[in-house]
């Protein structure tokens, strides 16, 4: 549950998956990693509650595993342990406020072509905390893979926001130039700059 009592990401995701399984005869496994032991119990309770609202046919086809531990490297270890890496995966990395998901984890998951990753974090974290140079910028560097994201601090604080895409363009340029034979369209579509 979130602060205002609304369902959290795991509950919403489970409901979306359950709805999809009404239309498709598939099976899936949901692996949830929680670092805080107090929240593990609440997460288990919430998942039991959302599962209780579904038909038996659906709950039999969605396995839910809740684990206590830091998601990195524990998530990769769990995925390797069950033989899931290399198979179709949707990985939602829902940070707790700031950008606390290391880019190295994204790189590892990105090595598997059938894996899709979605990362969430509150952008306000960057402007509220990272500007102060008190260690939070390093978290941003780890999350984005380099300090280039810090270019956002040079942008005008005016009401009109014009994103500085130069760092992203450079990353895309490097990605293309790393492949002597070029990149495929599906590889290039991984970048949000390409619409």
Description:
The structure is a single chain. The chain is an alpha/beta fold. Helix content is 44%, strand content 13%. It has nine helices and four strands, in the order αβααβαβαβαααα. The protein has a two-stranded parallel sheet with strand order 1-2. α5 (103-110) links the parallel β3 and β4 (115-120). It starts with 8 loop residues before the first helix and ends in a 7-residue tail after the last helix. The model has no long low-confidence stretch (mean pLDDT 83). InterPro entries: Tcm_partner. This is Three-Cys-motif partner protein TcmP.
Main beta sheet strand tally, sense and closure: 2 strands, parallel
- Individual helix count: 9
H/E element sequence: HEHHEHEHEHHHH
CATH class of the largest domain: Alpha Beta
Amino-to-carboxy terminus distance:
34 Å
CATH architecture of the largest domain: 3-Layer(aba) Sandwich
Radius of gyration: 19 Å
Structural class: alpha/beta
What is the total domain count? 2
- Strand proportion, as a percent range, falls in 5-15%
Number of strands: 4
């Amino acid at each position: 549950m979130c602060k205002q009592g609304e369902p959290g990401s795991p509950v919403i995701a489970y409901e979306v998956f359950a709805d999809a399984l009404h239309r498709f005869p598939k099976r899936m496994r949901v692996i949830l990693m929680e670092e805080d032991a107090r929240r593990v119990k609440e997460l288990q309770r919430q998942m039991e509650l959302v599962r209780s609202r579904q038909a038996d046919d659906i709950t039999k086809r969605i396995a839910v595993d809740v684990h206590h531990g830091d998601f990195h490297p524990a998530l990769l270890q769990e995925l390797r342990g069950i033989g899931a890496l290399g198979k179709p995966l949707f990985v939602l990395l829902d940070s707790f406020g700031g950008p606390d998901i290391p880019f190295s984890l994204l790189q590892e998951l990105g090595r598997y072509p059938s894996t899709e990753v979605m990362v969430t974090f509150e952008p306000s974290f960057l402007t509220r905390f990272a500007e102060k140079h008190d260690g939070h910028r390093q978290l941003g560097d780890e999350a984005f893979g380099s300090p280039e994201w810090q270019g956002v601090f040079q942008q005008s604080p005016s009401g009109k926001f014009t994103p500085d895409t130069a760092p992203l363009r450079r990353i895309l340029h490097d990605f293309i130039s790393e492949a002597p034979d070029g990149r495929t369209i599906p590889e290039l579509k991984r970048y949000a700059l390409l619409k």
